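Key result, reporting period 2: structure in, sequence out.
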């Protein structure tokens, strides 16, 4: 590739340096991902803990139940560490909270555990503390959520501008070989490498900025929408592997003039339709469930008011 000239060698070299930089920054990226998991699930975590505290169960049992819920991701791991300190090391809940607060990578969780440690150590009721914390955290969560959406709007405009620039560059490199003796294929490959690099960078940025708001429910068993879509994707990928081989044989002339050459590309990707239809179906189901949430939420309130 280096023999292809600077126009091709420079994008390839920059892409390779980007991969090396990503590998070196992986620990920091992983820590940032853990912070994002805590920040995205913390309002659900705190609401769950508050509800359990009002059920008159032992304080450590509250966090023991939270630690068993895998959907909380990093929060479940940090809570499990705190429970292990109490069960295995015979530490008190306030000491365990203070210890985890010092080691966690999330400042949000660290501050919460510090306040929890002080409250438990002072002998105050944990349910009163959690109720107050929930109100403050929910207000803070709304502010952060709206700020993230505003950042995504800016990033969306920047992404559109970059795609327009890449499209313009692609047209430009198709004209350059007419005036300069540079192979058009090399220029097009350079633009494609730049396009791939831009896509990777924007994927990382969107993943870092976007708030954690799953569209589909994910359960522990294999009955949720994600599991059904995953099975459909596996079937579609397997069938696509077969149709790609058939398309290559068709392009090689094994089947004669059965189909025009451009149509063999359609044959190769047609089997990706079932996963797409499954995703569309699950999306409509999720939309119907979302539309039914307000009426469902008011029904228990009305029943409780009557009783």
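The corresponding designed sequence is given below.
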């Amino acid at each position: 590739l280096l023999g292809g000239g600077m126009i091709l060698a420079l994008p390839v070299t920059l892409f390779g340096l980007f991969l090396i930089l990503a590998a070196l920054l992986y620990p920091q990226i992983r820590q940032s991902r853990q912070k994002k998991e805590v920040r995205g699930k913390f309002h659900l975590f705190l609401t769950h803990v508050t509800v359990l505290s009002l059920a008159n169960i032992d304080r450590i049992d509250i966090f023991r139940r939270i630690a068993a819920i895998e959907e909380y991701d990093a929060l479940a791991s940090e809570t499990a560490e705190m429970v292990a300190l109490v069960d295995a090391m015979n530490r008190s809940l306030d000491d365990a909270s203070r210890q985890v607060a010092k080691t966690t990578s999330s400042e949000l969780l660290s501050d919460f555990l510090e306040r929890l440690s002080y409250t438990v150590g002072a002998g105050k009721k944990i349910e009163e503390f959690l109720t107050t914390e929930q109100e403050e955290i929910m207000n803070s969560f709304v502010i952060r959520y709206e700020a993230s959406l505003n950042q995504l709007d800016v990033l969306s405009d920047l992404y559109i501008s970059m795609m327009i620039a890449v499209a313009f560059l692609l047209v430009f490199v198709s004209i350059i070989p007419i005036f300069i003796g540079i192979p058009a294929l090399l220029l097009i490959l350079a633009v494609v490498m730049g396009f791939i690099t831009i896509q990777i960078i924007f994927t990382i940025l969107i993943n870092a900025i976007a708030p954690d708001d799953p569209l589909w429910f994910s359960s522990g068993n294999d009955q949720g929408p994600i599991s059904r879509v995953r099975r459909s994707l596996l079937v579609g990928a397997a069938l696509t592997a077969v149709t790609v081989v058939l398309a290559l044989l068709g392009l090689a002339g094994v089947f004669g003039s059965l189909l025009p050459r451009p149509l063999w590309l359609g044959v190769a990707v047609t089997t990706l339709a079932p996963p797409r239809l499954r995703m569309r179906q699950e999306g409509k189901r999720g939309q119907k469930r979302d539309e039914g949430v307000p009426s469902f939420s008011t029904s228990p309130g009305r029943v409780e008011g009557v009783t």
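Residues 126-179 form the longest helix (54 residues). The chain is about 80% helix and 0% strand. This case is discussed further under Risks and Mitigation.
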